[in-house]
């Protein structure tokens, strides 16, 4: 019989190696390589991997332990009803869109929505009406959607079936959910909130409020992003009478696997219990450590920490999400991320043109922030090539490209999906109709939706991200993209 070292196991071997490297982890999942979960709850994971037998209940027809766990979650998160998702927030967003829209119906959507919204539009056949987030030129990022922009969209499209926004966004920026919810409900429409990055918000008064607090009709949260849960674990919360629960349940059963993971469900339950019983204290500890860290990192020089003073009116930031602008170091966020990983044993969650983004959770302790401070101090002392500084100065010329311009749609996402397609080099696609989803990943916000015209600005934007070292999903070999034939 072979020894473990003799087995050819590329995934297992790499992940074991990564876990042993003592990397300072500032990425999801929120348990941070099990550090946020008591050992007795994280050992023997495979013993939790069972199926629907007597006593284990059934996710799609819960009557026993799963029903009880979902009811406990609803009370903990302040929702009327809560359903466990084992296929991530993606299936929850898809199910929500399919439950409020039929083919050809309008739905008002934040342009900064995750790419899972695109698949929800294709599956439902709905037509998006976009509202655009505010742009923050100090950090080169998008802020939130305003209640006024929602009001304008609803007044111009009173036949829209619903409104869908993302809050918080990848940078932890939270729109004014109270006024947005009041505006949407004043039109008698349901509000869907992609709160994938905000599952922790319900558990501390020191954080921005969850959308559940203001009765958003559907709230989808990725537990694995900010709670001590495993990847693909998410919650779908329902509030109020505007959503057809039977439709939601039917769509979830259709979109989710018929063999749901009991490991994922178990850790959704564990995450809820840990946050419900210990969340206030552990989040306060985390925020105290972040405040100390923010004060120290500002003394290094070269870094700018995103906070409320840089944001617009009626917009707040989740302080557990660290966003550090590195442009004054003369490098891109992509270069900072790569250097931190290769030379300084630190892995951030994501990077963009100017910033690095770090996810902090209750799994993080003081030593994590001390190590991060040491790594950032060393990064600031590295004499980067002057070409990097020139590249960043050139990037400033393209700053407004980061602000999403109105996409000109000639086909609905479903129509573009159903059309015949061909693969063409990006440079030759000026004026063509995009057939796929073109998305920098992370954060997963589409530059181009299916059915939109590819213009010169978008081509320049995509090429610039790639030149800076970013990844753009939907762009294939030889910088080719799918277009309608």
Automatic annotation (TrEMBL):
Query: Where is each Orn/Lys/Arg decarboxylases family 1 pyridoxal-P attachment site domain found?
Result: 10-297
An example of a Pfam family matching this protein is: OKR_DC_1_C
Alphabetic keyword roster: Decarboxylase, Lyase, Pyridoxal phosphate
Citing just one GO molecular function, the answer is:
carboxy-lyase activity
InterPro entries documented for this protein: Orn/Lys/Arg_deCO2ase_major_dom, Orn_Lys_Arg_decarboxylase-I, Prn/Lys/Arg_de-COase_C, Prn/Lys/Arg_de-COase_C_sf, PyrdxlP-dep_Trfase, PyrdxlP-dep_Trfase_major
Instruction: Please state which protein family the record places this protein in.
Output: Belongs to the Orn/Lys/Arg decarboxylase class-I family.
The protein's name: Orn/Lys/Arg decarboxylase major region
Please spell out the taxonomic lineage of the organism that makes this protein.
Bacteria, Bacillati, Bacillota, Clostridia, Eubacteriales
């Amino acid at each position: 019989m072979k020894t473990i070292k003799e087995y050819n196991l590329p995934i297992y071997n790499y992940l074991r190696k990564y876990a042993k490297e003592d990397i300072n982890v500032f990425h999801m999942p929120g348990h941070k390589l099990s550090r946020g979960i008591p050992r007795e709850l994280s050992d023997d994971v495979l013993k939790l991997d069972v199926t629907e037998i007597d006593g284990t209940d059934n996710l799609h027809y819960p009557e026993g332990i799963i029903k009880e766990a979902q009811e406990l979650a609803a009370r903990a998160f302040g929702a009327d009803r809560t359903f466990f998702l084992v296929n991530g927030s993606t299936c929850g967003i898809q199910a929500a869109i399919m439950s409020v829209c039929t083919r050809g119906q309008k739905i008002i959507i934040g342009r900064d929505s995750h790419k899972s919204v695109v698949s929800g539009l294709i599956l439902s056949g709905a037509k998006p009406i976009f509202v655009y987030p505010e742009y923050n030129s100090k950090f080169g990022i998008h802020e939130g959607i305003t209640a006024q922009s929602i009001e304008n969209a609803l007044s111009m499209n009173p036949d829209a079936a619903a409104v869908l926004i993302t809050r918080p966004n990848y940078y932890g920026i939270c729109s004014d959910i109270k006024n947005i919810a009041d505006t949407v409900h004043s039109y008698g429409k349901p509000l869907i909130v992609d709160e994938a990055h905000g599952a922790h918000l319900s558990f501390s008064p020191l954080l921005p409020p969850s959308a559940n607090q203001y009765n958003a009709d559907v709230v989808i949260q990725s537990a694995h992003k900010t709670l001590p849960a495993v990847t693909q674990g998410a919650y779908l919360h329902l509030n109020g009478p505007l959503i057809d629960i039977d439709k939601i349940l039917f769509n979830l059963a259709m979109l989710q696997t018929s063999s749901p993971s009991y490991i994922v469900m178990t850790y959704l339950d564990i995450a809820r219990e840990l946050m419900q019983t210990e969340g206030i204290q552990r989040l306060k500890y985390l925020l105290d450590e972040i405040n100390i860290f923010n004060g120290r990192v500002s003394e290094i020089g070269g870094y700018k920490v995103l906070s409320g003073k840089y944001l617009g009116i009626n917009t707040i930031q989740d302080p557990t999400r660290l966003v550090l602008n590195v442009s004054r170091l003369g490098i891109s966020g992509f270069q900072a991320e790569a250097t931190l990983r290769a030379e300084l044993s630190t892995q951030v969650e994501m990077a963009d043109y100017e910033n690095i983004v770090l996810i902090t959770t209750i799994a993080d302790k003081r030593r994590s922030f001390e190590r991060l401070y040491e790594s950032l101090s060393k990064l600031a002392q590295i004499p980067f090539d002057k070409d990097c500084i020139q590249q960043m100065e050139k990037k400033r010329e393209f700053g407004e490209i980061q602000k999403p311009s109105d996409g000109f749609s000639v086909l609905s996402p479903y129509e573009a999906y159903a059309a015949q397609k061909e693969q063409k080099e990006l440079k030759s696609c000026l004026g063509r109709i995009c057939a796929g989803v073109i998305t920098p990943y992370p954060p997963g916000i589409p530059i181009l939706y299916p059915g939109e015209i590819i213009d010169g600005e978008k081509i320049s934007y995509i090429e610039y991200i790639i030149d800076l070292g970013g990844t753009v999903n939907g762009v294939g070999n030889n910088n080719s993209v799918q277009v309608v034939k």
